[in-house]
Structures are given as structure tokens and as C-alpha cells.
Amino acid sequence: MRIDQAYEQLLFSPRWYHLPFIVLMLPLSLLYGALMWIRRVLASPKDFGIPIISVGNLIVGGSGKTPFTIALASGMEDVAIISRGYGRKSKGLVEVSKNGKIVATVEQSGDEPMLMAMSLPHASVIVSEDRPGAITLAKKQGAKLIILDDGFNRVGIKKFEVLLEPETIENSLPFPAGPFREFWFTRKYADLVAREGRDFMRVVEIDQPRSKMLLVTAIANPQRLERYLPEEVVGKVCLRDHEYFDEGEIRKLMEEHGADSVLCTSKDRVKMQDFDLPISELKLKLNIEDDIIEKIQTYIQSSLKSRF
Fold first, then answer.
1. Do 93 and 131 share a domain, yes or no?
2. Range of the structural domain that residue 219 is part of
3. Is 29 contained in some domain?
4. pTM score over 0.90
């Protein structure tokens, strides 16, 4: 097991032998959590004059933000999605798509923004470390609504906070002893908390399944895929979150495992678009409860009425 995989296990599924390491890191975790809480309390959020919905979480790694954002934006018009673009090979502000037309590569955008751009034919997607600058640009280009991907800790922006939570949380400590970006109680600052299994459900289907599939993925906490894997999976290759793939290396691994296709997530697939390999895709979508959508729509309508 790689060091990063062992650390992920400590964060998401700690065992008894992780306790000494957790205790050792606890002072740093408490200091980090305190600094993040002070930062939040002292913040003066700026109003950008446009409805902004933040889809975020308190835990590092995946919690369904990307499919939630896609599901939310798919039913909206004049919407721009703004993301940090983790794992991209570019810097600064990059327009990924303009009203559905893709104008960047996956290396420039990062995997998750490209997946959103490919999934939303009427939306615009922008990646930038400078979220306020990206919001200003999107507004100038005609956006009537902003969805801020992974924006809960962007405390300087006035927005409607949607906080996603996993079904279970085994370690509720702040980083580095746990997976939390802030103290768990800062969830009270969210306008809407949506918990998996209660407020939204994951639905996974395999596109182009084969009899012998090799799982190749680069997502955080890949253990969460286990429940969706069929018996036809003959091997598993888990890289670091957002890591890029080497076609030749994957081909060798397929030969070693006797696999007749690569099984990957949609997030991984966008980085394999030019690969000449048989690919089976774990397609994920979310079924979101109607009352969650209604609360978000109520915010949008009330925000627009107050501005016009």
C-alpha cells in the first residue's frame, strides 16, 4: 500500500493502529481548525449583485459535488460554473466552455471542470484560483446565475451555501488528523445541508461493460467505488486524485490482468478521450429530492426579485 493510500485510510476509515498517528497530529488539527473558524467569523462576504449558489463540502475528497452541480445546472439557463480546477496543468483564469462550446483542453481545465463542460451543453465553465475575478467575468458575459463549485470555504463571497455530506463519517477531526477542512460544527453556517442517502442518492450504471474489466481510476478515496463494482472486475489500479494516465502503461496492465476493457469513472474518462483502448464507464448521476431543488429555486427567485 502506498503512503498516500495508507493516509487516505486514516482519514476516511481509521483503524485501531491509526490512533497513535491521529493523537500525534491532533494539536495541528486543533490549530488548523481554530484558524479556519477565526477566518470564517471575521470574514465580510462581498455581494456581487448576482445569485451565487455554492456547492461544497466539509470533507476533503469526493462527496458528489460534481454530479450535484451537473444535476443542478442542467435545468437552468444563463448559468456559469466556476471551479478552482484542481489537478489542471494551467494557471490563472481559463474559460473551459462558453454556452456549451468547449474552448479548452482537459490539461488546461482539470478533469472535473471538463466533465461539467461536456455534460452541460448550455452552460459556461470557468476555472480560476481567483473566484471573485471569475465571477466578475461571468457576469460581464451575461450569466444570470453562478454556481460555485467547492465554494464553502470561500468565505469572502456572499452566496447560498449548499453543503453536501456523506452517508457516514468515521473520522470527524480537522486536517491533518482527519478529513475535515474545518471543525464539523461549521456546518451550521450552511443554508442547506444535503446528506447522501437522505437528500440525494447515487445511481451508477456501467456503459459498455465487458467480461473482464480492469478498474483504473484517479479519484480521492477510491474505496467508495467498491459497492458499485461488478464481479467482472479482474484488477484494480488506483492512482492519486486528479493524476493523468499513460495509455501505454494502461495497455501493459490490461495485458497483465488479461482484461478486455478499462473500467473508469466519468471523471477519469475525460482524460482518456484520445486513448485507443476499449473503455467501460461507471456513469454516475444523482437523484436529488424535490424539496432540495425547491429550496434552491426559492433562493434564486427571491434573489432575482430583490435585485430587479
1. yes
2. 202-286
3. no
4. yes
